[in-house]
Design brief:
Elements: E1 4-7, H1 17-25, E2 32-37, H2 49-58, E3 63-68, H3 76-82, E4 86-90, H4 97-106, E5 110-115, E6 133-137, H5 152-166, E7 171-175, H6 183-188, E8 193-196, H7 198-201, H8 206-214
Parallel strand pairs: 1-8, 2-3, 3-4, 4-5, 5-6, 6-7, 7-8
Helix pairs in contact: 2-3
Bound molecules: D-xylitol-5-phosphate and zinc ion (ZN).
D-xylitol-5-phosphate binds at residues 8, 10-11, 33, 35, 66, 139, 141-142, 144-146, 175-178, 195-199.
Pathway: Carbohydrate degradation
GO biological process, one term: pentose catabolic process
Active site: 35, 175
């Protein structure tokens, strides 16, 4: 399949959010990545439901909601109601991951699990068949603008091998430090959804930066 690009609005100008959403609408981006941080699971706080609803009002592309929060089960329906099309929970926050994934699917959202850089791909072996997507964190979650962790390539290869048997249609999303320099190699090893915050929003021509990621 062709790979998908999901600009992360964590790097947008929050005082001009409508303008930045419209930029994404008018670009070759496929999804809009929405980072929710609670100051507990990760050391940073981003934004909550009113902002997600406001983004949804203007977005013409699906909202890819990434929950970096403890006990995400408490908030799945609220994020669906705010406009989430896909919901990603962290493996590290879900003791009953199978139940959580079923709950996301019952809401009618795509269901995904994220793993931190230190969490092995093998921990997802028994849930892989139930997932639409796995998000491999290529930085430690919490902040935009960090350096890409090279071990990510190895994890993508391992996940592609595992999913070939259990879930060949699995989407593999990469989040953190993705740019025009590393996207080609990430595609080669088997990833197919790319979050990009800084590399898009720090660019003088953001639409062109998205286009460059779409056609590397
Ligand atoms: C990090 C977030 C990312 C972040 C990526 O915790 O999950 O989605 O916005 O930002 P960049 O592309 O700047 O690394
Ligand atoms: Zn994210």
């Amino acid at each position: 399949m062709n790979h998908l690009i999901a600009p992360s609005i964590l790097a947008a100008d929050f005082a001009n959010l409508q303008r930045d959403i419209e930029m994404i609408n008018n670009s070759e981006a496929d999804w809009i990545h929405v980072d929710i941080m609670d100051g507990m699971f990760v050391p940073n706080i981003s934004f909550g439901f009113p902002v997600v609803s406001a983004v949804k009002k203007h977005a013409t592309k699906p909202l890819d909601v990434h929950l970096m929060i403890v006990d995400p089960d408490r908030y799945l329906k609220a994020f669906k109601d705010a406009g989430a099309d896909s919901i990603t929970v962290h493996q590290e926050t879900c003791p009953h991951l199978h139940r959580t994934i079923q709950a996301i699917k019952q809401l009618g959202c795509k269901a995904a699990v994220a793993i931190n850089p230190a969490t092995p791909v093998s921990t997802l072996d028994d849930i892989l068949a139930d997932l639409d997507m796995v998000l491999i964190m290529s930085v430690n979650p919490g902040f935009g603008g960090q350096h890409f962790i090279e071990n990510t390539y190895k994890k993508i290869k391992e996940l592609r091998t595992l999913s070939a048997e259990k879930n060949p249609g699995l989407l593999i999303e990469i989040d953190g430090g993705v740019d025009a320099n590393n996207i080609t190699k990430l595609i080669e090893v088997g990833a197919n959804v790319f979050v990009a915050g800084t590399s898009v929003f720090s660019s003088a021509n953001q639409v062109a930066a998205i286009s460059k990621l779409k056609h590397p």
